[in-house]
Amino acid sequence: SLLPVQFCKPAFAFLPQSPGSAAATMEFGNAKFGAVALALQALFVALFAAFAKYDEQADAGLWGNATGRLRPAEVGTENSLGPNYPMFQDVHVMIFAGFGFLMTFLKWYGFCSVGLNMLISALVIQWGMLVNGFFHLKDAKFSIDIQGLLAADFACAAVLISFGAMLGRLSPLQCLVLSLVEIPIFVANEYVGLYIFKAADMGGSMFVHVFGAYFGIAASKALTAPGDGKNSNDHSGYSSDLFAMIGTIFLWLYWPSFNAGLASGDDKHRAVINTYLSLAACTVVAYAASALFEKGKFEMSHIQNATLAGGVAVGTVADMMIRPYGALIIGCLAGLLSVFGYAVIAKKLRAANILDTCGVNNLHGMPGLLAGLLGIIYSASASLDDYGNGLYQIFPARAPVTANGSAFEYVVKDGTLSVEGGGAGRSAGSQAAFQAAALGLTLLCAVLGGLLTGFILRLPILDPVRMENFFQDDRFWHVPSNYDARPFGGEGSVPLNDKEAEEPV
């Protein structure tokens, strides 16, 4: 009786509850999540044991202590992990800190925003490696190296973008299911785009951003019931918006690594420069457009998100010869497009009951479509005059066809490279057509896959979150005593009227 009330509450969670009570449903749902999460982790352990192996650079039986030898390129170097590791670290920070804190803008949903972001990422790292590995099995095994870790983080980004569209309305169990269903569709689409269509998309603007955005929006539409958008907990606070800006800064700083991480040689150098310039121009234009749309004042949601759109819009062409001024122009277009999305298009989507909590259409979707269109344009104009033999490094399918499937070898500044099995002898126009096909297929897979996933997430067995619990941490977390969100319909948390529902969130 001497303990404060908030410390007594957890003890009652283990007492018998009436079968239909909210407390009983909550405890059963949380226990179900724990059982499913443990079962999934056990399955991952078994699958890694059966199918995964170290890449030869990490295998002690081939290099290092067992033989006393190091790979020639690593002798005398401080970082034997190779040039991709620093960029992998940058992207890793983007996934866990950047995406996580960017989503903390909701006033009463910070624990879930950054916490479920971490849960999804940890799950997808493992599941993404497995699914991607099954597409590249050799001798019944797939290898894991630093580039594979980077690719797993790219898969995380796609799922986190989709999660952002439904932020505040998913339970932890639904997050697990979202990840399990989305990753196979994501990997299959990426495999077709990269290895069959042989499309260029170095920064993943099509295969990561467009896919993740429209998968999430389609899933959100299928999940949404009438009236779900009228909840006054769907708003930010002064402190929560400040935390979200931390995520923005992390993403802004490290985005060049995201776009350049999988590139090599001069392509990597060029991708960093192009992304850096695009982000800078985008930020200036985003601030200007926000002031114009908002009658002279800045809107925080614009600054948190639209300032990053330049990184998305330049992603597909980041390693191409777009010239420095071209990168600046792309950034300007992206900043204007993204702010227009938040100020105008977001209202129209909400009026149609298409809920997009984080505005992923404005940051990832529309700038990603712009990137896809730019990929078509720059692919159609790419020539040996601009690229030299480096053209075949960015567009392997444009390399000449070789006899008997032998490799096509070509010389660049860094040495002799090759296209395994030879190229397809494509023209610039043909390559542009395949770029368009990859973009179209990505949109189709994203929308159909998202709709299917949304209907799955509605299944009662997954304990969908009730409307009165949207955008509230205390449904899933022990919260401190100063946590003040009230149930939907109660004082301080009432349904929005039609006029308020039209206001930008």
From TrEMBL:
Is Transmembrane helix one of the keywords? yes
Q: Which GO terms describe its molecular function?
A: ammonium channel activity
* Subcellular localization, as worded in the UniProt entry: Membrane
Stretches assigned to the Ammonium transporter AmtB-like domain: 77-461
SUPFAM superfamilies, sorted: Ammonium transporter (SSF111352)
Q: What is its main location?
A: membrane
One GO cellular component from the entry? plasma membrane
The biological process GO terms on file are:
ammonium homeostasis
Q: Which UniProt keywords apply?
A: Membrane, Transmembrane, Transmembrane helix
For this UniProt entry, which segments traverse the membrane? Answer: 33-52, 91-109, 116-137, 149-168, 175-197, 236-255, 275-293, 328-345, 366-384, 432-457
| Pfam families named among the record's database cross-references | Ammonium_transp
User: Which InterPro entries does the protein's record reference?
Assistant: Ammonium/urea_transptr, NH4_transpt_AmtB-like_dom, RhesusRHD
Q: How does it sit in the membrane?
A: Multi-pass membrane protein
Which protein family is it in?
Answer: Belongs to the ammonium transporter (TC 2.A.49) family. Rh subfamily.
Q: PANTHER family per the record?
A: AMMONIUM TRANSPORTER, RH50, ISOFORM D
| Protein name (database record) | Ammonium transporter AmtB-like domain-containing protein
Q: Which organism is it from?
A: Macrostomum lignano
